[in-house]
UniProtKB/TrEMBL annotation:
It comes from Erinaceus europaeus. The lineage of its organism: Eukaryota, Metazoa, Chordata, Craniata, Vertebrata. Gene3D superfamilies: C2 domain (2.60.40.150). It is a single-pass membrane protein. GO terms for cellular component: axon; cytoplasmic vesicle membrane; exocytic vesicle; plasma membrane; presynapse. PANTHER family: SYNAPTOTAGMIN, SYNAPTOTAGMIN-4. One of its GO terms (molecular function) is calcium ion binding. One of its GO terms (biological process) is negative regulation of secretion by cell. This is Synaptotagmin-4 isoform X1. Belongs to the synaptotagmin family.
Length: 422
């Protein structure tokens, strides 16, 4: 019986030995894993990354047609000392290929150059009939402020095709345009042209990227215009700079009355200085007749856009084609929008259009109604003629009108309001 008891004791010791070895193995494994992690962390902290992604590069606007290995752009040299003279924005150039591993530009790569002097460039002017001559006395009268407001020169040609009874306009180029983009110090110009006074013929050129001297060379042919009618027409050019994120910037305009211009001898080459667009004064934006009624039983606000009067010309091209957008706001958030039909070529439009909004009585204090009178333009963004806001927080007649509909529910109250700047 003794050997049997000894073997039992040996079997009882086996689990204990296995447990001890397992514990030692677990401790060794954990220690090895911790050591490896520490080694990786230390090596990673001492190693310089081979590259760095630069997600936003300030001052660079990328267009598909301009992607290349090298690109220069204007920037400010903030690292230079205060004793050095200031360098214009468009005179500092950085080479993108000469960045270091971290995406920074070395100081030794800064190239300072003289900016192009657009005023000293003397373009070849086409011969022109009836153009006023500039005398030395008139040049002396120009102030420095007026010189800074030079907006460039537009070059174009006019021709009449007697066989096809067609009026032909060729927009050649523009020179010395101002920079509308403050970061890249350039513009993305294009030109809109309208034949006045009827405004039936409206065309525009393509957009040319990143240039102050765009060469369009685009020809527009207008059929069905008798030669005898040419003298009664006028050409209106609007020079703009494209902006993909907001409304396009207006650089200036050129107005060419065709009276006195003889096209029977063939093509006529012309040029005109681009002038600043005539901006309307707030006192002359016209008036809008609005009728309001609040029904407390149904919690509805009835808005009637009745009439507009004394609306100004949208530009030198003649009468506007007005319509009204109605925006309903709760606090500062727009919750609904409506609009009227377009009324063609009139400064005194009659709309008579009704809109109904569901508004709880307790929300009237935070509700406001915005009226935007716009000029409808085919193929381009519509221009705001004037603006009106009615609400509890509105000033002047807008606040008074709103107070009356709250004090006298179920009563239709109409009032004229003066439009302000959009």
């Amino acid at each position: 019986m003794a050997p049997i008891s000894t073997s039992r004791e040996q079997f009882d010791e086996i689990p204990t030995v296995v447990g001890i070895f397992s514990a030692f193995g677990l401790v060794f494994t954990v220690s090895l894993f911790a050591w490896i992690c520490c080694q990786r962390k230390s090596s990673k902290s001492n190693k310089t990354p081979p590259y760095k992604f630069v997600h936003v590069l300030k001052g660079v606007d990328i267009y598909p047609e301009n992607l290349s290995s090298k690109k220069k752009f204007g920037a400010d040299d903030k690292s230079e000392g205060k004793n050095k003279p200031a360098v214009p924005k468009n005179s500092l150039h950085l080479d993108l290929e000469k960045r270091d591993l971290n995406g920074n530009f070395p100081k030794t790569n800064l190239k300072v150059g003289n900016p192009p002097n657009l005023e000293n460039v003397t373009p070849k002017l086409f011969p022109e009939e009836g153009k006023e001559t500039v005398t030395p006395d008139s040049l002396k009268s120009l102030t420095s402020e007026e010189k800074q407001e030079k907006l460039g020169t537009l070059f174009f040609s006019l021709e009449y095709n007697f066989e096809k009874k067609a009026f032909v306009v060729n927009i050649k180029e523009a020179r010395g345009l101002p920079a509308m983009d403050e970061q890249s110090m350039t513009s993305d110009p294009y030109i809109k042209m309208t034949i006045l006074p009827e405004k039936k013929h409206k065309v525009k050129t393509r957009v040319l990227r990143k240039t102050l001297d765009p060469a369009f060379d685009e020809t527009f042919t207008f059929y069905g215009i008798p030669y005898t009618q040419i003298q009664e027409l006028a050409l209106h050019f609007t020079i703009l700079s494209f902006d993909r994120f907001s409304r396009d910037d207006i650089i200036g305009e050129v107005l060419i009355p065709l009276a006195g211009i003889e096209l029977s001898d063939g093509k006529m080459l012309m040029n005109r200085e681009i002038i600043k667009r005539n901006v309307r004064k707030s006192s002359g934006r016209g008036e809008l007749l609005i009728s309001l009624c609040y029904q407390s039983t149904t919690n509805t606000l009835t808005v009637v856009v009745l009439k507009a009067r004394q609306l100004p010309k949208s530009d030198v091209s003649g009468l506007s084609d007005p319509y009204v957008k109605v925006n309903l706001y709760h606090a500062k958030k727009r919750i609904s929008k409506k609009k009227t039909h377009v009324k063609k070529c009139t400064p005194n439009a009659v709309f008579n259009e009704l809109f109904v909004f569901d508004i709880p009585c307790e929300s009237l204090e935070e509700i406001s109604v915005e009226f935007l009178v716009l000029d409808s333009e085919r193929g381009s963004r519509n221009e705001v003629i004037g603006r009106l806001v009615l609400g509890a927080a509105a000033e002047g007649t807008g606040g008074e009108h709103w107070k009356e509909i709250r004090d006298y529910p179920r009563r239709q109250i109409a009032k004229w309001h003066v439009l302000c700047d959009g």
